[in-house]
Amino acid sequence: MNATLVDTPKIFSEAQDFMPLKGTDYVELYVSNAKQAAHYYKTAFGFQSLAYAGLETGLTDRESYVVVQDKIRIVLTSPLRSGSEIGRHIDKHGDGVKVTALWVEDATVAYNTAMERGAESHLLPEQLSDEEGHIVRSGIKTYGEVVHIFIQRKNYNGIFLPGYKAWDSHYNPSSIGLKYIDHMVGNVELGEMNKYVEFYQKVMGFAQIMSFDDKDISTEYTALMSKVVSNGDGKIKFPINEPAPGLKKSQVDEYLDFYEGAGVQHIAVATDDIIETVTQLRDRGVEFLTIPSTYYDVLEQRVGKIEEDIQPLKELGILVDRDDDGYLLQIFTKTVNPRPTMFFEIIQRKGARSFGKGNFKALFEAIEREQELRGTL
Ligand code: FE2
Questions:
Q1: pLDDT grade for 136, boundaries at 50, 70 and 90
Q2: Which of 135, 166, 197 is the last residue of a domain?
Q3: Per-residue pLDDT for 163 more than 80?
Q4: Total number of domains constituting the chain
């Protein structure tokens, strides 16, 4: 079987929106030093200070910094003492995504619906209030130790969530044009991909919109398989990868080894001007996977005419792919952690709704060159 766009003309119509999701509310990472991580995301990725919770707001066990860029909110949380659940998570996984929070109309209905349809509970619906109003939140488990928190915020006017205060900083590096989270990819163990595809279909009403097998995503040495699920309006897209047998250890195996289990592999963030965004990121020290310059020799033959000049794309290492609906430009950072685990993708869509299948081979060979340096291939 080749890569299949499961349902091209009515791509998301299979999704049953019995649990309408209004978007990604925030992503929370458990990290060993939230203060310094926040500085990194501000300095390198152009996020702004938004909110803070910690000792000064009455917390005794942890500290969280919230940074924002357009529709993207990232919460960075560290423990304040030993022996905590957050500390255990960091010890096991290193820095990584703990929560993908989803914005819903009614967090109690979302929770009850998910539970009736077979979800595993993480957090019973609870109301949190302060002088700005109240929110309701609830949570269910997904792959690995990742959870989805449903956030109902229609009765809340505060800066982020009750318990947080505004984080006013004199240090405000400019935005680099990141707009929203386009998709978030999970790596799961061999044989688990279909289980989680079914989870998103059955529990959340998502549709499977694409599928790639090891023939699509393989190089001389390694392979993986991937399926993409999406909610009804296409705002929330979760590709799920599992390793496939190959001559050497695939990037998914390497991730599972170092993360010690399933987890979020990459967060793809959208921009309207990838050349400007990537230029800024590079200037601010972000490292990207590099692609052989021969990639660009045959680029226009492969994807046809595009609006961008090839030269800046080549200089920056930006990849291009085309599908039936248009084209997309994308680039991948190197891992942002000491462990070879999570990384970011920067993506600009010009009509295309797919994920860059035409770049898989070049990309995975680039990752293998990095694995080779780490001695983990
Ligand atoms: Fe991606």
A1: very high
A2: 166
A3: yes
A4: 2
* 166 alpha carbon – ligand 1 mean position (Å): 32
Domain shared by 153 and 188, yes or no: no
Q: How remote is the CA of residue 315 from the centroid of ligand 1, in Å? A: 21
Q: How far is the CA of 204 from the centre of ligand 1 (A)?
A: 21
* 236-293: pLDDT as tens digits: 999 999 998 887 888 899 999 999 999 999 999 999 999 999 999 999 999 999 888 8
Cα 268 to averaged position of ligand 1 atoms, centre (Å): 6
Cα 301 to ligand 1 centre (Å): 23
Q: How far is the CA of 11 from the centre of ligand 1 (A)?
A: 18
Separation of CA 343 and ligand 1 centre (Å):
10
Give pLDDT tens digits for 175-219: 999 999 999 999 999 999 999 999 999 999 999 998 988 888 788
C-alpha atoms less than 13 angstroms from C-alpha of 133 in its C-beta half-sphere: 12
Q: In terms of pTM, does the model score above 0.90? A: yes
58 CA from centroid of ligand 1 (Å)? 38
Q: Could you tell me if 77 and 38 are in contact, meaning their C-beta atoms sit under 8 angstroms apart?
A: no
Do both 199 and 320 map to the same domain? yes
Spacing, Cα 333 to ligand 1 middle (Å)? 11
Token pair for residue 178?
A: 């990141």
Rounded-to-integer distance, Cα 221 and Cα 48, Å? 41
Q: Are 263 and 187 in contact, with CB atoms under 8 Å apart?
A: yes
C-alpha of residue 116 to centroid of ligand 1, in Å: 31
